[in-house]
Amino acid sequence: MGGGEQGFRGKIGPATLITTLTSRTAFLYLQCMTVENALTLAGQGWILSSQNVTKFCAGITLYLRDPEGTCAAIQVGSWGSQAESLLASLASAGANYPNILNQLLQQIQGHYQGEPGESCVDIHQILEEAAGAPGTEGQSPSRALAVLLDHALAGSCFHVLPSPQYFVDFVFRLHGDESQNLTLSGKDLEGRASRQTRTPPKAHLGDSDSVWDTVCLSASDVLEVYGISEKEGVSPHAWAQLSPALLQQQLSGACLVDVHFPAQGDLSVTEKYLYSSLATLIICLASLFGLVIVFCASCKNVSHYVIQAFLGMAVGSLTGDAVLHLIPKVLGQHSHGEESSEHESPEFVWRLLGALGGFYALFLLENLFNILTSRPSEDKEDNSTCNHSHGMSLQLVTDELSHQRQPQQQEGSRTDLVILPGDPWLLSPLPPELQLLPYMITLGDAIHNFADGLTVGAAFTASWKTGLATSLAVLCHEVPHELGDFGALLHAGLSVSRALLLNLVSSLTAFAGLYVALGIGSNEQSEIWILAVAIGLFLYVALCDMLPSMMNEKDKRPWLLFFLHNLGLLSGWAILLVLSLYEENITF
Questions:
Q1: Do residues 205 and 130 make contact, with C-beta atoms less than 8 angstroms apart?
Q2: How much is the mean pLDDT over the chain?
Q3: Is the model's pLDDT at 400 over the cut of 60?
């Protein structure tokens, strides 16, 4: 090194160093860079020794990079912490170390004024001198900053870009043979470029051929290397000149950063927990709110038809979510990435809709056949003997509530509540072994709600749109399901308050399932498997539980019932179809 290095080898007065360095910037009017302020970094005393030179070099480098910003930091007392942060970032940079130093040189160049006639130095020379210093092993941020300040003291100019020849040398060094010539045999540059971008070469700081290998150059930098004006643009001749630089940047992978940009519809961890918890809370409250309508005796008929519409919508939303949304997602058809968005086609959605069309055709045929061939006497008989939980749920609830409102002659056992006129199969009290029935119902409901929570959690882990669709499906089937359980609890002899309490407790297990799914659903494979199981759950509940309730329901207004069932069914399918087709265009 020159005379500047001799100063750092021995001792140098801070006043001389500060006066010289401040004269190199274009901000001579700034009065913040005084000896007193500099001593806050250099330590006590007027001698800059090797023990405190590291932090001092970092602080002065910050001033050369941004004089005004450093003066502001000095005033608020944060200059020292900023210097320590710079040293820490350089020490932990790893392969990005040359990039950070190169950025520092670029920023310094905007404010720095060298001495006329002095030679120029670049990052390659600075790193080479720092790595070759005695007692220095590997990359040494403190030594590199000291070398940088030494050249600044000498008035050297800083050249922060490689020469045009470097890019050509890089390509031949990477793909040339022993004769330094490129050959077609085994030299598939396209394939090598693809692999090279995955594993960029590591730079050895003392190797003159590899200092720039991991430095990412901007478009302006590349144009400046070849002396091309940005205003004039790139001509065909200039493009031919730029080609080696563009090829080198591609082959080195220097500009590739392994950063995951969330796909459209992805949620942060906080948002996943917030939105999924809110959806689960709404599901729990809505399912209990469905019980409110049965407390109004005058609303008995209206509430009966509302529940029937919910049954239809439950079947539609459950089958629609499973077939139109979850099955494509599990099979990898619903892609949220940019690369697949150009090739994605909704054709598979229409094919799956055709499967639902076949289901609907037979549903219509059977319903019409039952309506047209049934007799009024059969309707009445069937209505009294059907013992399916959802078919009887509303009647059970309203009958039990009416029975509990009647004045009682004496307290008696709660099992007396189950002896209802018109119900031949309930003419005797529950036997002792069936007194555990309410708790068995509650346990089964708790397991069911836990599975619902797992499904909602996995859906929100995938995306908020999948979470919305799944939450809708769960909500629609929870209202009639909870109503059926409520009626069964009342039938088992529980009071209204006790039945509501057990329903509420069992619904809270949905949150346990939710947080389990969110915890393990961060793994993509776990998410897919949970959704795959959810498909089976949804199809079973829809086809083996809800659908028989619809088919077995008898009413004195069969055409109104037929209309409500179809309205709910088609509404559920329509909502899920729109979401499946246009979910990529939905933003918030």
A1: yes
A2: 70
A3: no
In the structure encoding, which two tokens stand for residue 312, read together? 């239809």
Q: In the predicted model, is pLDDT for residue 356 greater than 60? A: yes
Residue 186 and residue 203: Cα distance in Å, rounded? 25
Please state, as a whole number, how many other Cβ atoms lie within 10 Å of the Cβ of residue 522: 11
The top-scoring range by mean pLDDT among 316-320, 402-406, 503-507, 541-545 is 503-507
Q: Tokens for 214? A: 């991991």
Average pLDDT over residues 292-303: 59
182-196, 363-377, 502-516, range with greatest mean pLDDT? 502-516
Exposure string of 482-513, with b = 16+ CB inside 10 Å and e = fewer, is bbbbbbbbbbbbbebeebeebbeebbebbbeb
3-state SS of 461-520 is HHCHHHHHHHHHHHHHHHHHHHHHHHHHHHHCCCCHHHHHHHHHHHHCHHHHHHHHHHHH
Q: Which of 216, 247, 309 is nearest to 571 (CA)?
A: 309
**In this structure, how many other beta carbons lie within 10 angstroms of the beta carbon of residue 227?**
9
Can you tell me the distance from the alpha carbon of 326 to that of 529, in angstroms, rounded to the nearest whole number? 11
Span 158-168, pLDDT tens digits: 767 777 887 88
How far apart CA 415 and CA 432 sit, in angstroms, is 10
**Maximum Cα interatomic distance, the chain, rounded to a whole number of Å:** 115
Q: What percent of the chain lies above the pLDDT cut of 70?
A: 62
Residue 212 to residue 217: CA distance in whole angstroms: 10
What's the CA angle centered on 122, arms 60 and 97, to 5 degrees? 70
Phi and psi at residue 121, to the nearest 5°: -125, 155
pLDDT at 166: 78
Residue, of 49 and 73, whose pLDDT is higher: 73
**Cα→Cα distances 209→13, 125, 165, 202, Å:** 37, 12, 11, 11
What does the alpha-carbon distance between residue 295 and residue 299 come to, in Å, rounded to a whole number? 8
Question: What residues have CB less than 8 Å from 515, skipping those under 6 apart?
Answer: 273, 453, 457
Question: Rounded mean pLDDT of 217-229?
Answer: 82
């001749």: which residue's tokens?
A: 237
**Nearest CA among 317, 327, 306 for reference residue 564:** 306
Separation CA 139–CA 246 (nearest Å): 28
Instruction: Read off the amino acid at residue 363.
Output: F
The answer to whether 128 touches 98, Cβ cutoff 8 Å, is: no
Q: Give the closest residue to 152 by CA, choosing from 184, 105, 189, 192.
A: 105
pLDDT for the residue 61:
81
Residue whose C-alpha is closest to residue 461's, from 377, 511, 517, 501: 517
Q: What global pTM score does this model have?
A: 0.44
Q: For the residues 275-296, what does the mean pLDDT come to?
A: 74
Residues near 547 by beta carbon (within 8 Å), at least 6 away in sequence:
315
* Pick from 21-25, 189-193, 245-249: least confident: 189-193
Task: Report the C-alpha gap between 586 and 588 in whole angstroms.
Answer: 7
Separation CA 124–CA 163 (nearest Å): 11
Q: Name the nearest CA neighbour of 213 among 201, 222, 198, 197.
A: 201
